[in-house]
């Protein structure tokens, strides 16, 4: 598929620090074609949300809430450019549609999953997800020399720590509370997979909540270590041909580390890969092998017995996954946000880090 504008633009994005060595390009045009592609995918994914609304789980709602913030973050940035203005308007319209849909989704969750809803309510609040205003890159020297083969911790343990952090547990403790158990779990070295991405999410949410005391004084250090390792895992996933179900984790890593401000997750090849995984008919993301099957395909067996509805696994019979769709829209929305925030290559000075820094 020929997408010269897209390719040219992402070549620019892939080579920060050396834009002046590249030929002059109509980057406004490049941005416009790429933004159009991403927005079209996100509009289709939003139709999926709309059609499945009573059945989507909390994960999906969180993912689309992140997307809404990302869309709000781009809608005004493109107003001054006549080529990009219509795309900014489209982003604004999609954000407005999501506001209404997510409000409805919460009403359904109040019936289907009230406990999770209460525990994770803060992550659904407008303004909870603070998007980066400055960017950095992962540092490969922070990648673990070895991985702990017994690293996997259950979603329940992870949830317990997140709930403590948010202060939404039944014990009415303050936000930013940290038990010894969670301190050990969330700083454990050598983790990979979902354990690693949940360690990152923990420190990311600590940042969103404004936790700055004790362990959280070192949040940025841990965020740097975890995203360096998530980058290494994503590169391995790419080398292995993104076999399912790795795609889900791959997109989660881009979503979370992108929100953490690591711009090197926004790679052309990765964007193209994600766009190619969207089910054209349904607009969702999920199991690529399930095509119009009658029988519901079983989700991958959980590694741990769980006492509640598993947030991470809600698979519709057509292979649409709530979790994968959530991570996909969070990742794609991140690409869009980065695209809007990044200065054009021929716009004058090219600071490696954009200003102004956020209020961290
Ligand atoms: C990467 O991390 C190493 C080890 O902490 C450090 O010595 C080095 O300065 C870092 N590099 C960059 C570019 O930050």
UniProtKB/TrEMBL annotation:
Swiss-Prot/TrEMBL keywords: Signal
Endpoints of the signal sequence: 1-21
One Pfam family named in its UniProt record: DUF4735
Top-level taxon in the UniProt lineage: Eukaryota
InterPro entries (alphabetical): DUF4735 (IPR031751)
Name of the protein this chain belongs to: UPF0764 protein C16orf89 homolog isoform X1
Chain residue ranges for the region called Disordered: 285-308
UniProt GO cellular component terms: cytosol; membrane
Gene that encodes it: LOC105982058
């Amino acid at each position: 598929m020929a997408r010269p504008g897209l390719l040219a633009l992402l070549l620019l994005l892939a080579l920060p620090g050396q834009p002046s060595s590249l030929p002059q390009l109509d980057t406004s045009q490049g941005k416009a074609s790429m933004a159009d592609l991403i927005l079209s995918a996100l509009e289709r994914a939003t139709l999926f949300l709309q059609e499945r609304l009573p059945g989507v789980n909390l994960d999906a709602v969180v993912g689309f809430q992140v997307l809404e913030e990302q869309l709000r973050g781009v809608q005004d940035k493109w107003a001054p450019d006549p080529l990009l203005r219509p795309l900014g308007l489209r982003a604004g319209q999609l954000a407005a549609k999501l506001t209404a849909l997510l409000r409805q989704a919460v009403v359904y969750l109040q019936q289907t999953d009230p406990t999770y809803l209460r525990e994770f309510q803060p992550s659904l609040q407008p303004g909870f997800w603070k998007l980066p205003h400055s960017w950095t890159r992962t540092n490969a020297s922070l990648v673990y020399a070895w991985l702990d083969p017994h690293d996997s911790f259950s979603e329940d343990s992870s949830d317990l720590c997140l709930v403590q952090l948010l202060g939404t547990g039944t014990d009415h403790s303050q936000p930013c509370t940290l038990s010894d158990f969670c301190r050990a779990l969330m700083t454990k070295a050598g983790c990979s997979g979902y354990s690693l991405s949940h360690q990152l999410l923990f420190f990311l949410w600590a940042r969103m909540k404004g936790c700055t005391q004790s362990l959280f004084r070192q949040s940025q250090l841990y965020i740097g270590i975890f995203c360096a390792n998530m980058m290494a895992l994503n590169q391995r996933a790419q080398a292995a041909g993104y076999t399912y179900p790795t795609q889900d984790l791959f997109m989660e890593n881009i979503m979370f580390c992108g929100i953490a401000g690591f711009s090197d997750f926004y790679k052309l090849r990765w964007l193209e890969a994600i766009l190619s995984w969207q089910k054209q008919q349904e607009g969702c993301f999920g199991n690529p092998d399930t095509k119009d099957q009658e029988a519901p395909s079983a989700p991958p067996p959980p590694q741990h017995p769980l006492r509640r509805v598993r947030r991470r696994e809600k698979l519709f019979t057509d292979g649409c996954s709530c979790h994968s769709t959530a991570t996909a829209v969070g990742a794609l929305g991140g690409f869009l946000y980065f695209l809007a925030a990044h200065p054009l290559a021929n716009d004058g000075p090219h600071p490696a880090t954009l200003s102004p820094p956020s209020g961290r």
